Amino acid sequence: MVADALTKALDKQTFEQHLPRLVGTSTAETEQRKAVEGDKHTQHLSCFYTVFKSQDFTDLCLAFDIKQRFSPPHSQAKNGSAERTFRTLFETARTMLFAADLDKPFWGFAVQHATLLHNIAPRRSLKDKSPFEALIGHAFDVSLLRVFGSPAYVHVEKSSTRHKLDPRSRVGVYVGFAEEDQAHVVWMPDTRRVVHTIHARFGAIKNKDAASSQQQQEQDDSSASASHANKTAQRSTEDSATGAPTAPRAGEPQLQPRALGGSVWDQLLVSETLGDKDTSGGSTTTCHVATSAAGTGEKISAVGGHLPDIAAGSFATSAEPATVKEALASPDSEEWRQAILDEFAAMQANDVYDVVPRADLPKGHKLLRSMVIFRKKRDDQGKVIKYKARWVAKGYSQVHGVNYTDTFAPTATIAAIRTMLAMAVARGMDIQQMDVNTAFLNAPVDHEIYVQPPAVDGIFSPNTVLRLKRGLYGLKQSPRLWNHTLDAWMREQDFVATATDTCIYRRTCKGGKVMWVAVYVDDLLIFADSDSDMAAFKNSISKRFKMKDLGSPDICLGIKVQHDHKARTVTMSQEHYLRNVLETFGMADCKPVGTPLCTGYAP
User: Which range of residues forms the domain containing residue 193?
Assistant: First the structure.
């Protein structure tokens, strides 16, 4: 046991320093803290390990005014605190194994990772501190953790064995975090080793439904090569029967079943997880990876015959095209084509650019590239309500002082918007929402900028460039230019920005009635005491900018807003966002919980 090693290795003074850590926090190894009686007398309920019944340990407990109590054998009920903790750890481990689609032999890694999560989770009994923070003195940096079972791409260090065309990373499985060296623990299926590394990138766990469909497709595609695989397996069987060793193919790693890496704990886990079974049982657990020319690796067999599909296709493909070519070749090609035409029609209506021959490009001017971004706008039920194409400039290539200067643009804070909603409901004000179409195209640019036109057939002539006259999405200064344009118009309409939030405007109308306008880039929330003032404002701003009247607020900054003017109530929720998160992670059909937080929780 770890406790025995510590007792033998440490002298009395050092052991006294480590006694609180050994007694108070070794949940998965030894004992659990049971109760506190008085200011100095602490009782601990311990298991039947030899170290806790030794005379040295008993003397140290007496020196610290700790009374030892031991439970008899086969009486788990007397050790309820520890048993309940074990249940929590194994339920967490079982959930992680199921979510990662890993087999039971990985249970040791899962329990170890669950123990870490248990120790860094805040407790109400510790005044919202975690056991880790209470013991060490500072909170654990949760940004160091990754999703258990996620694909890990470990960097291959440059050496004499790595050539120019060899892969720069190896594919593994993230199985935990090592506190002793602050590194990620990754199990490598190609070498059956556990490595500790900080040079790794991580992907997302693939949805099981998508994985099964892809697996079915791969099985269909590989049916033509089944006979070849059978012949290869038959040759291997014959070689095994005759005692002749099977020569590895070129490029295949020679695996050493007993060559384990990592710490002692990792070796114990790997030996139990991947250790060879007795040959008399007739089965041996092996892992074989055949590297392809691209170096991605194709799994032939794995632990228990199953591993998560991480070598190929770990990421779900997006339903939105990335290029114009993909958009026009997709099933929604007509919708995307119309979205492209609408976008450039808006460009022409706003007089955004002038077409200039490429030969007339002034010397010394940097030509910015551009692209078309495609998005599907959905309602709170996830239904597609609009296909949107946005022509943007690749502003990352802009140079400060050459084609842009300042970039800061204010927006209304969510706290200010929530406050205004509450005040408007209390006053019985009408609340409306409007959206500015292609807002950035209404602001003139402050520098001379030339942009390469997108590769869209039938819109631009070859050998031409575009000289921008107005702000374009993607330019670093476009948000600031739009904010200045809208702010100038609002002040012309006698609106005054508040001192605390420059994007909250107020105007006093006839009869002492007021209007408020909250601006978040191109979204406007309008509050008015009078319906006539509301209609007059909508009419005025629609004459200056191309607006979309959304009526009563629905989705504002990702929040669903329901306003009942008669009842003077407003309801805000993000149910649609939560449903989208559940669908993204394949948990749309999960069992609901009546109390997602522990009962009695008070933030």
Answer: 101-221+256-277+284-313
